[in-house]
């Protein structure tokens, strides 16, 4: 009898541990997904004015590059806010990022806000920054970017897509023409010319979008070639939709999204 009870409780204990492991794994996955999403969208003005509240928080800034300081550093500022203090961005993504040739093309940077101390940054990220170049930025706020992307407007992309093909982009706009759960367009203000930009989401979308919603989309720009897109992504298009999109967008730019989330950045 004793052996039977011991076996029974051992069996129950094993089930409990297994369930705990599953729940722990689910919690860990949720935390990892949340960690990859910025805590807040902000302007450079807010980073400068509310530094104490933002220190340690992961933020996303969409702003205009002002000055390149080194291979992995540059400053950004909001041109629409006169007199805004430039914010230092440190590229700690591990990937080379080239500033846009057009000085009016904004960039999007996501990463934690820190008080810039060059010795600490060199210690934590092994970037080898020259202390002499950063004397004026010591103890000032900086964004330690984990991801950086060009952030042109939809119409700028559709007007001159060759500038952006194959590049990681972060595009904000208003959701307009929803074709199915995996495809919609970002509305372009006709005052600036250009056409709406087609967005497709590979695989199963993490969240739905609604017409008229302002969103930020990160992904890679490609020409719309059905055979290549079907080869590389799990699109789940029915034949009717595929033919419609092919007729409208063949060899036009399409943004293949890896993330779509609500935008708090004014359009």
Essential attributes:
alpha+beta; 5-stranded mixed β-barrel; 267 residues; 29% helix; elongated; disordered N terminus
Give an overview in words:
The protein is α+β, with helices and mostly antiparallel strands and 267 residues long. Helices cover 29% and strands 31% of the residues. The chain contains 7 helices and 12 strands. The protein has helices at 2-36, 44-49, 51-54, 118-125, 154-159, 226-232, 239-249; strands spanning 40-42, 58-70, 73-77, 87-91, 107-115, 141-145, 147-150, 168-175, 183-187, 197-201, 214-223, 253-262. A 5-stranded mixed beta barrel has the order 2-3-4-6-5. It has a 5-stranded mixed beta barrel with strand order 8-9-10-12-11. The longest helix has 35 residues, at 2-36. It is elongated, with a radius of gyration of 23 Å. The protein starts with a helix and ends in a 5-residue tail after the last strand.
Q: Choose one word for the global shape.
A: elongated
Beta-strand fraction estimate? 25-35%
> Would you count the extended β strands for me?
12
Q: What is the average of the pLDDT values? A: 82
Short synopsis of the structure:
The protein has helices at 2-36, 44-49, 51-54, 118-125, 154-159, 226-232, 239-249; strands at 40-42, 58-70, 73-77, 87-91, 107-115, 141-145, 147-150, 168-175, 183-187, 197-201, 214-223, 253-262. By secondary structure, the protein is of the alpha+beta class.
């Amino acid at each position: 009898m004793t052996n039977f009870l011991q076996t029974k409780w051992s069996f129950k204990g094993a089930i409990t541990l297994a369930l705990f492991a599953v729940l722990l794994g689910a919690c860990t996955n949720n935390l990892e997904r949340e960690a990859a999403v910025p805590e807040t969208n902000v302007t450079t003005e807010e980073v400068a004015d509310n530094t104490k509240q933002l220190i340690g928080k992961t933020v996303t800034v969409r702003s205009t590059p002002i000055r390149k300081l080194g291979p992995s550093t540059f400053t950004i500022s909001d041109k629409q806010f006169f007199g805004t203090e430039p914010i230092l961005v440190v590229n700690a993504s591990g990937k080379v990022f080239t500033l846009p040739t057009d000085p009016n093309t904004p960039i999007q940077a996501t990463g934690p806000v820190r008080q810039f101390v060059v010795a600490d940054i060199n210690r934590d990220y092994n970037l080898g920054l020259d202390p002499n170049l950063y004397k004026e930025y010591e103890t000032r706020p900086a964004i330690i970017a984990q991801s950086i992307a060009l952030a042109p407007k939809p119409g700028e992309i559709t007007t001159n897509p060759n500038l952006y093909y194959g590049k990681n982009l972060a595009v904000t706009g208003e959701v307009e023409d929803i074709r199915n759960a995996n495809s919609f367009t970002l509305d372009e203000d006709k005052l600036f010319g250009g056409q709406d930009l087609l967005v497709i989401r590979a695989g199963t979308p993490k969240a739905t979008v609604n017409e008229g919603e302002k969103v930020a989309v990160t992904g890679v720009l490609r020409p719309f070639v059905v055979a290549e897109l079907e080869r590389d992504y799990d699109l789940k298009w029915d034949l009717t939709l595929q033919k419609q999109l092919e007729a409208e967008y063949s060899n036009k730019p399409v943004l293949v999204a890896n993330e779509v989330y609500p935008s708090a950045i004014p359009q």
